[in-house]
């Protein structure tokens, strides 16, 4: 009996030992296999580019804001662990494909804005006792377009131009006048062969003449000015055009387009004080690295509210931006996915950083960031700073004392950013606002310096679907989508977009001068007679074209005399405020 009991106990106990051992061995083997698989997956990317890859977590379509975890010398970007997958971003330098810091074709093109032999002098063109006054609108760069077009409008009207008055009452609340920002003496002297410009309105017949106040519609062409403004100017002698921004058509004869370029690229110089401080900031960036990127980052609260996009901030973001958006009753109901799908949402700081790293810029690159107050503050900027730790701004490069003469004036501070962005090796923008457009055109004119604007429509789908994607695949797609958006000379599209962004009539080829007839300018196919092949304009190129504008005046038939008070009655106050906020 005792023997049978012992045998039954042995049958119960002995088999348990190999089961536990087998389970332990299986777990151990699984861990080894997973570790080996992980090693095989990551080793080739790290070995190929850098021994110190950076794991980046994929944001899911909910687009929660990124957070940073520094662990074992590796930057972790992403959301909660349950929401993300991880792919490795190489820390190394440039992409082996192409030259990131410039274009090989740039040496073949140059800016050309000389007047033709048939362009009459200012003395011959100007009619006595005919004066045009201009009141600009918006921030620095919107006002710059207004000043440029004011000179051309005066030329069309055979009038003497009074130095334009800058906007001091709008959202920007900057008390600066023209001479506080621009070199007024140079402005007058450099353009004296094209248009007569004076500082103040003189007395006419021994009397002070009160100007007739008018406003012209947007995109008003030469005939529009001749029909609407000229009759009043002949009768009253003095006309003051208000809220003068984008009031001149893109489609003008070549000599007038070239005059635009002479004003914008040669006639408008900042004051010595502003220019010297801006040059000093450039020198300090150059001292840190042979090359640097300047990033114009528009991510302010009001702009994001207007966009109607969602940036991953949860219910708090929806409530805050939704409340601001209600101030503009004319805006349509927000549809975030639609706006992003159409490329109308500015890229987030993280997305811009990922795009630049995918293009091949290494984490050792120095970046100068020109921006207002970023929505979400440092938390929102953290992923960009992790991707590019060498992060600078005018506030980090200069002392408070150095910035004191400018810090109380938004336009003067914007002028400093403008100078540094213009002087950078690569200029990048997350938007297509006024500063981005003007700098893009200026950099094309002065040698086609590398200018990168995101193909927001295509990148949207890439950012949305990058979960489970390798870094190699992500980077390859970014390269593909950004073709035509890298500031190459063959991206010029005569007649498409804003002339200030694509000054095609003012770009010449060294081997053969490129000229454009009126039919060329109006040709929507966007071809030109120089070397190479133009990338044809597509819908995504124009998606942002009116993003800055809260007001779009119709070009229909109206009375030639459009008094300011009557015009203002047709425009809602929230539209004016919207336009001011989004102007630069």
Automatic annotation (TrEMBL):
InterPro entries: FucosylTrfase_pln, GDP-Fuc_O-FucTrfase. The chain crosses the membrane at residues 21-40. Keywords: Carbohydrate metabolism, Fucose metabolism, Glycosyltransferase, Membrane, Transferase, Transmembrane, Transmembrane helix. One of its GO terms (biological process) is fucose metabolic process. It comes from the Eukaryota. GO terms for molecular function: glycosyltransferase activity. Pfam families: O-FucT. Belongs to the glycosyltransferase GT106 family. This is O-fucosyltransferase family protein. It comes from Zingiber officinale.
